[in-house]
Amino acid sequence: MLARTPFTEVEIEGVGTYRLPNQWQSQRLGRLRGEKRHTAVLAIGCGMTVRQLNKFLPDKQQEVHKAYLALMSPSNVVPLADPVPAETRVIPRGHLSIDQKLAIGRWLLHNKAALPHGHFGPWLDKQEGLSRGMASQCMRLATGGRQDARQGSAL
Asked: Is 150 left (phi over 0), alpha (psi -120 to 50) or beta?
């Protein structure tokens, strides 16, 4: 099975490049509700204001919306090439050996690198039996305790 790299931006003719909002932008958008929020997500993704986006013709606005849907589609997520082996699965209230923590840390770092910026924390929250603290500990162990800009402690 070939692994497909997810795309993180879409080029729209006459508009520019559309990218999903980052974590900071998403927090700011959390204050808005309904149609205002949706329009703001589309505008920020294009790097413009809502007023600028509203000046576009409806067909261009529709293309921006299609780009948003393409980036949010479940088919844009990379399937894991190698799932976690059974001996590395986290057992609730169980103790893990150093080798198991190393394997989990490598698996987490692999998934973090495959996800777009700002998506690792929500993905990690969906993993049952794995707390953020344990994930941080496993990742720190897998990297030898070093933290670079791409794999910081911000989960």
From this structure: alpha
